[in-house]
Design a protein that fits this description.
The chain has 8 helices and 8 strands; from the N terminus they run H-H-E-H-E-H-E-H-E-E-E-H-E-E-H-H. The protein has 232 residues and is of the alpha+beta class. Strand 4 and strand 5 form a beta hairpin. It is globular, with a radius of gyration of 16 Å. The relative contact order is 0.23.
């Protein structure tokens, strides 16, 4: 996803032929399994809550969380940098401080922040990869949780420590946690991209397997019909 959408089909096809071992990491092959629930997951008293997560190309992240029960909206965008550089051309340089992210609006009485993190760490991306995710490289593809509240930050840090202590992953978790300063929605053509382009080679290789894993590993969290921005 470091290149323009026009060339993604060619790039993904080449990746399949030339680097099958690399492609196998794009959907976190050995990570598609249950991991423990967050030991600390405080209940929210609000009717809605927002989480901002970064874990590689936002097309796949939006696709996964749009299928989660209790999620009411998912927006692809940028977090970690300034407003003036919150656009695809500049973020793609890897020099803006931004990460491709998704802003997830959810009903905390149906799915908690800790449960979203459980999905995020287990099937949505590989949290042990540093400044990359599968074929996409650069700080804009880093694994990061942008906490929208002190409670979210505490929950995220405690969960990472819990997973590291339990040696759930063979390698240390590379996910960063920092308070959310701002989230900027990405350009319109990035929104619902997975659902509008399901036959694109990039989507089929890198992202659709994540949704299949969500359905298989977390059937209680999965819903068949995704929530799309076009429906709003």
């Amino acid at each position: 996803m470091t290149i323009k959408p026009l060339y993604l089909v060619m790039a993904a096809a080449a990746a399949v032929v030339l680097a099958p071992s690399l492609v196998s990491r794009t959907y976190a092959g050995d990570l598609n399994k249950e991991i423990p629930a967050a030991a600390s997951d405080p209940a929210s008293t609000g009717m809605t809550e927002v989480a901002v997560l970064a874990g590689g190309c936002f097309w796949g992240q939006q696709g996964v969380f749009a299928h989660v029960n209790g999620v009411t909206k998912v927006v692809s965008g940028y977090a970690g940098g300034g407003k003036q550089t919150a656009n695809y051309d500049q973020v793609s340089t890897g020099r803006t401080g931004h990460a491709e992210s998704v802003q997830i609006t959810f009903d905390p009485h149906k799915v908690t922040f800790g449960q979203l993190l459980r999905i995020y760490f287990s099937v949505a991306h590989d949290p042990t990869q540093l400044n990359r995710q599968g074929p996409d490289t650069g700080t804009q593809y880093r694994s990061e949780i942008f906490a929208a509240s002190p409670e979210q930050e505490a929950t995220a840090r405690a969960y990472i420590a819990q997973l590291d202590t339990a040696h759930v992953f063979a390698d240390p978790i590379a996910t960063k946690v920092e308070p959310l300063k701002a989230f900027y929605a990405a350009e319109d053509y990035h929104q619902d991209y997975l659902f509008l382009n399901p036959d694109a080679a990039y989507i089929q290789v890198n992202d659709l397997p994540k949704i299949a894993s969500l359905k298989r590993v977390w059937p209680d969290y999965y819903r068949e019909k995704p929530v799309l921005l076009a429906q709003k």
